[in-house]
From TrEMBL:
Keywords for this protein: DNA damage, DNA repair, Hydrolase, Metal-binding, Zinc
NCBIfam families: tag (TIGR00624)
Binding site for Zn(2+): C5, H18, H176, C180
InterPro entries, sorted: Adenine_glyco, DNA-3mA_glycosylase, DNA_glycosylase, Tag
Gene Ontology molecular functions: DNA-3-methyladenine glycosylase activity; metal ion binding
Enzyme class: hydrolase
Role description: Hydrolysis of the deoxyribose N-glycosidic bond to excise 3-methyladenine from the damaged DNA polymer formed by alkylation lesions.
GO BP, one annotated term: base-excision repair
Protein name listed in UniProt: DNA-3-methyladenine glycosylase I
Recorded catalytic activity of this chain's protein: Hydrolysis of alkylated DNA, releasing 3-methyladenine
Keyword DNA repair: yes
Length: 186
């Protein structure tokens, strides 16, 4: 049986997410945006809640097409508020629209969101060697810095904890514990 990180439950969905996505470097702007949306909606909730609703989010938010989301009308916003398949939080739904608009602004400034976000780690993942749950941080100085930068640009729901979870999800940091089969060996 594969040894996985401490946070993985018996859920097949969780195992698949851990084994195939979490901690794997993502450079594609579309996927980076998807994770940004999912992480911002996750704030204050469990990740399994988001994973269970991920396909509903995908449908509700036009397959995470940030160009479409950036132009959502008031009626689309209202329909999202009525969609029981997603997290119906007014501020988080508004933030998805605002964040999509700002995501495009960053693309214009840097050429891609990927170039912008990966520049914080010199374009290569930080490989941590945590052995126990207690060692894995919820925030770091780097997640504080990224959070402040995004907030200054107008992004919402991008606190340091959300940004560290984002960094883990998109592989900017590899926090697979050393006993996990996904931890890179030397």
């Amino acid at each position: 049986m594969k040894q996985r990180c401490f946070w993985v439950t018996d859920s097949d969905l969780y195992k698949k997410y851990h084994d195939e996505e979490w901690g794997t470097p993502v450079y594609d702007d579309c996927i980076l945006f998807e994770f940004l949306i999912l992480e911002t909606f996750q704030a204050g909730l469990s990740w399994i809640t988001i994973l269970n609703k991920r396909e509903n989010f995908r449908e509700a938010f036009d397959h995470f097409d940030y160009k479409k989301i950036a132009t959502y009308s008031e009626s689309k916003y209202d329909s999202l508020l009525q969609d029981s398949g997603i997290i119906r939080n007014k501020l988080k739904i508004k933030s998805a629209i605002t964040n999509a608009q700002l995501f495009i602004e960053i693309q214009k400034e840097f050429g891609s969101f990927s170039k912008f976000i990966w520049s914080y780690v010199n374009n290569k993942p930080i490989i941590n060697k945590f052995e126990k749950r207690e060692e894995v941080p919820a925030t770091t100085t780097l997640s504080d810095t990224i959070s402040k930068d995004l907030k200054k640009r107008g992004f919402k729901f991008v606190g340091s904890t959300v940004m560290y979870a984002y960094m883990q999800a998109v592989g900017m940091v590899n926090d697979h514990t050393t006993d996990c089969f996904k931890h890179p060996s030397e």
